[in-house]
Amino acid sequence: MQLLDGKIVSQAVKADIKHQAQLLQQAGKKTPHLAAVLVGTNGASETYVASKVKSCAEVGFKSTLIRLEENISETELLSTLEKLNQDDDIDGILVQLPLPRHIREEKVINAILPEKDVDGFHPVNTGRMVQGQPSFIPATPYGIMLMLEHYQIETAGKHAVVIGRSNIVGRPISILLSLNTNPGNCTVTVCHSRTANLKEICLQADIIVAALGKPGFLTADMVKENAVVIDVGITRVADATKRTGFAIKGDVDFEAVAPVCSYITPVPGGVGLMTIAALLKNTLRAVEFKS
Ligand code: GUN
Questions:
Q1: d(CA 141, CA 263)
Q2: Torsion on CA atoms 100, 110, 120, 139, rounded to nearest 10
Q3: Active-site residue among 14, 52, 158, 281?
Q4: What is the overall mean pLDDT for the chain?
Q5: Model confidence pLDDT, tens digit, residues 155-170
Q6: Homologous superfamily, domain 139-273
Q7: FRET pair for 52, CA 20 to 30 Å: which of 16, 221, 223, 264?
């Protein structure tokens, strides 16, 4: 079994982004600038956004964090986004999800200009991605593809089973793995909460992407010998031994599954780090598209 090490790969990707940003500057182009919008005080969202802002600085990007009250109206949030759309210095905009219940996620996603939508959630980017056209690809699926590419994992003709069908991870990764690209060219099965015979389907998989958000869900009896296992879960689970009071748990029972696999991503230290690297890559591309 070999670990797919998100730390090593994300550092390599970030070093390349830093270099590309320097080249842009030498060519007289602008410094990439990401605007991150955080509504409310969700603990996990605070951590993710802080990490995104910190990573911008690491690669020489500018970032602006816009914090809005939990009870901000949808109209106010949309007008904040309109200002960011109009601001020529802002290249990429992300609104951290989930949003408070009174705000319609769809309205917010649709309000971001597709050319600044570095999360790749706007329907224009989704449509382009589905057709295999250049687009912003959602950061987590993009990060997974970069990880598969880095380790030169053979995907063509393989059976990939994706557990989860969210717009952020499950659905886009299922599409990316099925495209006529490398990595890609998989035969893909998408499983979800209504799937019958999940275990039997997983046992046929050469590649499993677990993206359902249930800690320890994928157990060793569901995994074929030498399968590649990608764990997208990052659930906070109470743990009194930790300084923070919680531990981060993946969707895979790592201890039991790891000995069965050819490759596996750890949690933490796997896909999560790749998500941020992919977001930075999208932000760099937002500037490159302009020039
Ligand atoms: N919430 C969970 N994942 C993501 C992500 O990739 N982008 C944003 N904006 N919110 C998220």
A1: 17
A2: 0
A3: 52
A4: 97
A5: 999 999 999 999 999 9
A6: NAD(P)-binding Rossmann-like Domain (3.40.50.720)
A7: 264
Percent of the chain whose predicted confidence (pLDDT) is above 90: 99
CATH 3.40.50.10860 placement within the chain = 28-113
* 97 Cβ inside 6 Å of ligand 1: yes
Per-residue pLDDT for 290 more than 90?
Answer: no
Question: Both tokens of residue 54?
Answer: 């910190």
Distance 187 CA to ligand 1 centre (A): 27
Model pTM above 0.90: yes
pLDDT confidence bin for 291, thresholds 50/70/90: low
List, in sequence order, every residue forming a beta bridge with 3; answer none if it has no partner: 264
Tell whether ligand 1 has an atom less than 6 A from the beta carbon of residue 44.
no
Which regions of the chain carry the CATH code 3.40.50.720? 139-273
Residue 78 token pair: 């949309």
